[in-house]
User: Fold this.
Amino acid sequence: MTRIKFCGIRREEDVGYVNLVRPDYAGFVLAPGFRRTVSAQEAGRLSSLLDEGIVPVGVFVDEPPENVARLLEDGTISIAQLHGMEDEEYLSRLMDLTSGTLMKCFRVSSRGDVEAASCCSADLVMLDSGTGTGKAFDWSLAEGLGRDFFLAGGLDPSNVGEAIKRMHPTAVDTSSGIETDGFKDYEKMEAFVKAVRSADGE
Ligand SMILES: O=C(O)c1ccccc1N[C@@H]1O[C@H](COP(=O)(O)O)[C@@H](O)[C@H]1O
Assistant:
């Protein structure tokens, strides 16, 4: 079964929707300055309201590794999604500070980005187009990646089925595609999960 990550959870109401619809992962944007940013303290509070089994993920952009490690170690998050320019040296420093799960995100605009993902030392990799822009990248660039990956970027209930059938990702990740007027939309979340399960069944 394809796993599902809903990102950009920022209100108690959103957590309520997540607990009803039950994706595998719930993402909190902990990088400062984005529309969906929440503080570490608020992420901790929201994460504690998640039903058991829904894994909290923190999204960071070039955050000092000590800060990322602290939130993994204190249980605020279980996975750190690194969405900036973090390189192998950064990953190695972070791995010295924590045994928490690391997911490196690659913004795909060339085959080189996909090749970098294939040999990355992080536990998990994500292929995306940007930082929650609602836009897809050219999926044909990702053919032959050679390892499991999370697929993100512009996924919504209308295209996630095609994405699964064509790309066979381990997990699909969405934020803009389950929002209306900038806020999480319960019906779109439900429709997204339904579209994923239907593609899995075909
Ligand atoms: O969503 C954000 O604001 C964000 C900020 C900083 C880094 C990453 C961010 N979002 C990530 O992008 C994917 C895809 O988003 P979308 O579906 O295209 O809107 C999202 O799930 C986050 O992982």
